[in-house]
Amino acid sequence: MGLTLLIFFLVYVAMGFGKLPGFMVDRTGAALIGALAVMVAGGISPKAAWESIDYASVGMLFGLMVVSAAFVVSGFYAWTAERVALLPVSAPVLLAVLVGVGGLLSALLTNDVVVVAMTPLLVSLTLARGLNPVPFLLAFCFAANTGSAGTLIGSPQNMIAAQQLGLSFTGFLAVAGLPALASLPLVWGIVALIYRGRWTLPPGAGALEDPPAAPPVTLDRVETAKAGLVTALVVVAFIFSDWPRELIALAAAGVLLINRQIASRDLLAQVDGDLLVLIMGLFVVNAAMAATGLPQQLLGGLRATGLSLDDPLALYLVGGMLSNVVGNSPAVMLLVPFLTPGGDAEALGAALALGTGFSSNLIVFGSLAGIIVVEQAADRGVKISFREFARAGVPVSLACMAMAAAWIALIGT
């Protein structure tokens, strides 16, 4: 047990810091090494390790990643970013449009893929207009995180929670959709208030004096229409059929990979393989930890004090805090196996999705989207410091969390 606990601790230290301190081992590497280590140490048998991996969740995530990747290679995301950024409107109105687009796309497609695809072009186009890119990038990031909480296909942690709790597409949407939608005006209003009068970038504020021009945008309308049709069919199948969701997603991926215009390797290159490996590794590490019996003892002690994770509001708060320590997906994976949803499955699913999604805007490292935005902006000469991110992220997170807490308390009664 002692060795399993040590491995578990080191893996989640890496989840929190982004790497294992003192080593060139990132989160994915730590999860994979941890899974191998618990097997070698005897904390879990190889057979039990394979069986601990929820292939339904992994398959659904992979399939939907391919669907979202189809919009990348067709040029849709870049085309959308260009059309939005070049709208002849005032800066506050442009911010509102960008928040709406980011929230909507992230609810229908994987949020991290949306952010990766659109951020570089948003930086270039806002600089070309003489605008300060920071408020637009932050609002886009915040909206992607909160908007994605509204559907079970919006983010990896939502997919894991929905699969593990057996939630339907419409059931998830019914409990999480409204607060996710309500979060978007909060994001816009707070960011617009903080950056009022600072819509243009002053000289020497961190951007390159001669920023690289935005790459030319080419939209393949046929491939975009094909990806859109497949996405619509996936959603319809999720709602109206009883087919396993992972098979629906994998079938959609197969259809999109059969293509005469786009090489399958180009499509698969947009899939976040590291995230898939990380999730599979954590399934094994978490199963080895559960086999020690210690998590069950800790939860029993919490219940004795009156705190139960089966209470949606308690789960919401714990999930929100934990996601800022170890990350969104690891937090959900830690919590879900110890829930006994019963008739409150939808409320618990909403608590996990909203808690991890809304709290992730608190600091840069609270979400992969935040890290992507900051790093890609820095590559183009726009610096977003930890303090600058938190200056807008903290009030956005607190406002959205308070709103969602009231909603969860309401549906949990």
Account of the 3D structure:
The chain has 413 residues and is an all-alpha fold. Helix content is 72%, strand content 0%. It is built from 20 helices and no strands. It has helices spanning 2-17, 27-40, 46-52, 55-73, 76-85, 91-108, 111-128, 133-147, 156-165, 169-194, 221-240, 245-257, 264-268, 273-291, 294-304, 312-326, 328-335, 345-359, 368-379, 386-411. Helix 1 runs antiparallel to helix 2 (27-40), helix 1 (2-17) runs antiparallel to helix 14 (273-291) and helix 2 packs parallel to helix 14 (273-291). The radius of gyration is 21 Å and the shape is globular. It starts with a helix and ends with a helix. 51% of the residues are buried. The mean pLDDT is 84.
- Which structural class should the secondary elements be placed in? mainly alpha
Which band does the percent of strand residues land in? Answer: under 5%
What's the alpha carbon Rg, rounded to whole Å?
Answer: 21 Å
Q: How many strand units?
A: 0
List segments where confidence is low: pLDDT < 50 over at least 5 consecutive residues.
none
SSE series: HHHHHHHHHHHHHHHHHHHH
Largest sheet, strands/sense/barrel: none
Structure annotation, total helices: 20
Estimate the mean pLDDT confidence.
84
